[in-house]
């Protein structure tokens, strides 16, 4: 495989931005600001990048200020380990303030790393980089052994999220381990508690675990009850129920109270019906869509079939379910269901509406918009938030784009707009947001699209992006 390169700039493997002398001395607290200059930065994963002659070793490109491009790999100075064939460095990304210094830090999943013995692909690891006035700097590497588990082919780090789970002001790291039996979720950095792995059959979760559930394959965090501590939303898209293989589920974990709440399409208030191969929970995004100060949760159901005569396990037209936060956490009473039957566009077989999700305030009015990836038709759908009741179909837009798989990964960037990846072609596109209060999505088909970066094909550049 050819080594990937960015067409817009020559990549030199450093961990700091080009002009660290211009960086301020202290961290800004701006989400995703890795170099303390007060501007949001963006990390872009390319887990199939060839590094040092090793195919699919993986890399992560950091766009400081959305401009200056620097690439991170396992062969960089100070990064433990080395790039190897098939490691998939960049299989997942998460940003948060893990050390409490108000600089954003970056966690990089290396889900196919061999940690137990050479050739044991799929053990997995997570590489952490700490932000500073000089940019990202390599820090610790975590694997299952650091969370008290035996190293094995569990794909540790296949999903990542960050959130303040204990209310102490800094973020904890949440790590998906979907190959651990039916799956698991690691929590690292929790105040008053050591590192831990939570499984479906953990006593306080109380679910049965099956090998194909993929519990922990998808993660999000949000303060759904407004108590100042975030909860974890865990997608298990392969979760099966009697005669409903691959129906999928989402479990909300409150690690402080040690409480778990299970959601499926059969839960009270949730629209739809749990069916085989719906893959409910294949994508998650938390945001405050109704401006009430509590996080809400969007859940992708890309396998949902709306077209007649779909075959089992084929891709679907897709839908998205939305649950709203309350003083008692997420509830189904105000739940919404969205598809292109009720929005701009037309549902089609293989569209995979809901395969990727993102949330952010794109129009500057204080509530979040919901961005839905529709990679089967190379498009994104944007719904406006509203303090009057949450997401609305009013003024929703379908924005087509360039590149194979456009809409497969999404990120909103504070003050800049919406970033959309087309990893099949290695293209990254910025759709600038516009300030307009009310039920407006902040972007439109007429929005000027700017190509942020491109790579040679095959690297899966844009497979994962960091959000705010």
Automatic annotation (TrEMBL):
Q: Which Gene3D superfamilies match?
A: Integrin alpha, N-terminal
User: What does UniProt give as the signal peptide span?
Assistant: 1-23
Example of a GO cellular component annotation carried by this entry: integrin complex
UniProtKB keywords: Glycoprotein, Hydrolase, Repeat, Signal
> Transmembrane ranges?
none
The UniProt GO MF terms for this protein read: hydrolase activity
InterPro entries in the cross-refs:
FG-GAP, Int_alpha_beta-p, Integrin_alpha, Integrin_alpha_N
Matching Pfam families, A to Z?
A: FG-GAP
- Biological processes per GO annotation: cell adhesion
Q: What is this protein called?
A: FG-GAP repeat-containing protein
């Amino acid at each position: 495989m050819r080594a990937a390169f960015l067409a817009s700039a020559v990549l030199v493997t450093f961990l700091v931005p080009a002009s660290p002398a211009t960086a301020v001395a202290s961290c800004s607290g701006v989400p995703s600001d890795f170099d303390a200059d007060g501007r949001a930065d963006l990390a872009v994963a390319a887990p199939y990048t060839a590094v040092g002659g090793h195919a699919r070793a993986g890399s992560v490109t950091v766009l400081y200020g959305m401009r200056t491009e620097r690439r991170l790999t396992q062969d960089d100075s100070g990064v433990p380990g080395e790039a190897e064939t098939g490691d998939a460095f960049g299989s997942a990304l998460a940003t948060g303030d893990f050390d409490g210094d108000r600089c954003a830090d970056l966690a990089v999943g290396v889900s196919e790393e061999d940690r137990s013995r050479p050739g044991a692909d799929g053990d997995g690891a997570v590489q952490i980089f700490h932000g500073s006035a000089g940019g990202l700097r390599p820090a610790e590497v975590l694997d299952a052994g650091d969370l008290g588990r035996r190293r094995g082919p569990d794909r540790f780090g296949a999903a990542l999220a960050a959130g303040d789970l204990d209310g102490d002001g800094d973020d904890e790291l949440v790590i998906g381990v979907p190959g651990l039996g039916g799956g698991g979720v690691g929590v690292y950095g929790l105040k008053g508690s050591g590192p831990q792995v939570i499984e479906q059959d953990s006593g306080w979760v109380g679910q049965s675990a099956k090998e194909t559930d993929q519990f922990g394959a998808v993660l999000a965090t949000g303060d759904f009850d407004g108590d100042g501590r975030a909860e974890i939303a865990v997608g298990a898209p392969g979760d099966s129920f009697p005669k409903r293989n691959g129906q999928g589920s989402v479990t909300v974990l409150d690690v402080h109270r040690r409480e778990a709440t299970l959601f499926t399409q059969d839960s009270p208030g949730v629209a739809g019906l749990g069916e085989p191969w719906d893959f409910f929970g294949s994508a998650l995004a938390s945001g405050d869509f109704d401006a009430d100060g509590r996080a809400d949760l969007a859940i992708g159901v890309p396998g949902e079939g709306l077209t007649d005569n779909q075959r089992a396990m084929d891709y679907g037209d897709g839908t998205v379910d939305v649950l709203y936060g309350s003083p008692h956490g997420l509830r189904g009473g105000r739940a919404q269901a969205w598809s292109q039957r009720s929005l701009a566009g037309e549902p089609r077989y293989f569209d995979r509406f809901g395969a990727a999700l993102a949330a952010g305030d794109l129009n500057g009015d204080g509530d979040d918009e919901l961005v839905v990836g529709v990679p089967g038709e190379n498009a994104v759908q944007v719904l406006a938030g509203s303090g009057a009741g949450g997401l609305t179909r009013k003024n929703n837009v379908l924005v087509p784009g360039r590149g194979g798989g456009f809409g497969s990964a999404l990120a909103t960037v504070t003050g800049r707009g919406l970033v959309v990846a087309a990893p099949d072609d290695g293209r990254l596109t910025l759709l600038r947001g516009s300030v307009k209060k009310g039920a407006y999505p902040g972007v439109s088909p007429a929005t000027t699209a700017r190509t942020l970066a491109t790579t040679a094909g095959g690297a899966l550049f844009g497979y994962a992006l960091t959000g705010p």
